[in-house]
Structure formats: C-alpha cells, structure tokens
Amino acid sequence: MKADFYKENRRAFMEKVETGTLSVFMSGELLRKSADDDYPFYANRNFVYLTGIEQRDSILMLYKNAEGYKEILFILPSDMMAERWTGERIRPEIAAEISGIENIQYYDEWNMQLASMIQKEKVQTIYLDLDHKSDRRNWNSADWMKQYIETGYPQIEIRNALPILKKLRLIKKDCEIKALEHAEKITRDGIVAMMEHSKPGMYEYQYKAEYDYALAQHGVLEPGFTSIISAGKNNFCIHYYGYMGQAKAGDIVLNDVGVRWGHMVTDVSRGWPCDGKYTEKQKLLFECAYRTSQHMFDILKPGIPMKEVDLIIRKYNYEQLKEAGVCKSYEEIGKYMWHGGAHHIGFDVHDMVDVEGVLTQPGMVFCVDIGIYHEEWGIGFRLEDNCLITDSGCRNLSEDIPRTVEDIEAIMS
Ligand SMILES: [Mn+2]
After folding, report:
1. Tally of structural domains, the chain
2. Which position among 149, 293, 345, 372 has the lowest Cβ density within 10 Å, counted as fewest Cβ atoms?
3. Does the pLDDT at position 348 exceed 90?
4. Structural domain harbouring 72
C-alpha cells in the first residue's frame, strides 16, 4: 500500500476528533516468551492502518489545531550493536516514505515531546486506542500510556479512539480490495494443495504443511491467522488447533484458513472427503450449504441490515436441510448450525469494525460462512467465502477456490 492510503486514513480519523485534542497510537512492544526468547512481533493493526509501519516501539502523535493537524512519528534510533543481532531498523527517510509523515523523531524523545505539546498547546484531551477483551487481563501499550498520562497529567481527559477507527475500517478502499484479491489467489493455492495431496491416513499436520508450503512459495511465511485444519470428529471443535489427528477413509477434512497480503487477510473454509469422493450423506449436506451460499451471493447488495445477514443464512439453510429430510423444525436448527456466518474481514480476520445498526454498503467485505455439523453422521464442515458488496450487488472474492462437489472431486481425482 502506498503512503496516500495511510495519509487518507489519518485525515479521516482527524476529521472525527475535536480541535485541541492529541491522539497517541503505538505499534506495541516485544512480548517475551521465555528466557531470552521473544514472540514474533506483531504490530497493532490500528497503528499500521494509520502509518504502514510494522516496527516495534513506534509511536504516532496527531495533534489537531485550528489550522489543521500536526503529525509526529517516533521510531527506534539506529543501534549498531542491536542491529547486528536482530537486523536493520527502519531509517527515518524510509519511515517517512512508507507513512507519508514528514516529522520523524526518535523513540527516546516521545515523553519530552508529549510534555511540551501538552504544555504549549494546552492539550486537555488525549485519544488512545484502548481495546480490551473482556476475559483477558493483558495490558497493551495503550494501557501503559494511559497510566503514564493519568499519573503525570491527571488534569487530562482520556478518550477512546477505537470507536472512530472501527467505523473507518468498515469500508474498504480500492487498494485494500486489490490486496485481498491477491491474497485469495494464494489462499487458493494453499487449499488446492491440501485437496490434491489428500488421502486416507494423512495427518492434519501434513495438510497444514501442504498449506504452509504453498503459501511460502509466494513469500507468505505465515498463514493469515492460526489455521484450522481438522479431520473427522475433530471437525466438531469449531476452533481446533491440534493438528495431530488423522484422516481416515470416509472422513471429511475441514479447513478454515487465510492469507495476509498487503495487511489484508482472507478467511476461507472448505470441507472435502479425504479420499476424494463425497458419500451420499456428505454430498447431501454439502449441497445444502452450497445452495445457501449461492443464494446469499445472489441476493446480497447494498442496503441490507448487517444483523439480518446471519438470519437470512440461517433460515435459508434451514429450508435446505428440511428439504433434505435432515432437520424437521426451525427450532432444532441449532443442532446443526453452531455459529453465525457473517463477520467482516480486513486488517484483522475478525475485523475490528462497528456494524451496530449498519446497512450493507459498497466496500464492505464479510464472510458468508455456512457451517453444518451433523454429529450422528459424523459429518461437520464449513463453506466460507469472502463477499465484497459492490454498487449493484456483490462479488464472491473466493469463488475460484473449488466450492462445488463436482469441482472438488475433479481436483482430487
Ligand atoms: Mn474462517
């Protein structure tokens, strides 16, 4: 993505905050795994959305005044000894080129700058990207910054920037769609590789290895999110990460995987018979999901309440399962459909967007995910595709990834 993308994101954000406010965003810090081993660094997505910078310990300050706004980006200074061990750090001129921010300063100056800005500009309100998952205790960089400001500048009111960003991230720009389209091609390679190599006796980790290998051929060194790849009974664990199970003759293999490209993440699920031929029962269920999916791509267009999309999927899929003689009444649909099917994708696989009360609009991208779980028959799978809402309707971005009984059997033969 070019600097204009990040510039436009900052402009749109600044339009939503009041004059006289300062906003502070952080890329985050390294998390220690154990001893001297750290987890791979993963930059805060909102920070990347605003800067394009994925280096740890980077800070963005945005101050809005009557004339416009000031932008400062703080990055780690070069350090010969540190860089000898862990690689080159981004130089100021490169950071400026990526982000489109002219004023680049070094990380160790952020607290002086913060103090002087608060004093000179008489800042009374600071926006931080505060994000908590309800059942987690972990603090992130914004929490530390909040504590720092509350301790040093108790007069300052802290507000949350997250609701603003969640609105901005909902509508994707052309360059984001292009990145997704490319990511879908790589996703296809990964899923097709698993289908092509599939055979009874294959372990889930072997499927995973095929997927990862296909991605690596494109320079994608890790999947878009932790891959879900399971076989047989393990398909009944919705977010299964075991990888040690074995596909036995007659088992369905389920994948729920993605690829990140240009920050954008795909999310696609398929279910195929490990031996390449659907049984009657597998075919019966798969075709219910397929018809429901096709129906959604036929009807989705701008102007549909987002919260109804899930409901339409559920009702239509119920009709299919009823006709197939599987489900007798709508009351028992929960026995076969275990999850909703329409989350947005983008910088995050479950994208940080605000869909409260919104209608579908051009530029939204969300999953159409039809999961069917029939425990008695031992068949569980999902058919999940990525739907882009366009001006006149919608487009299935993942339609080239085999998704019919015929196409999947052909690829596996
Ligand atoms: Mn998924």
Report:
1. 2
2. 149
3. yes
4. 3-168
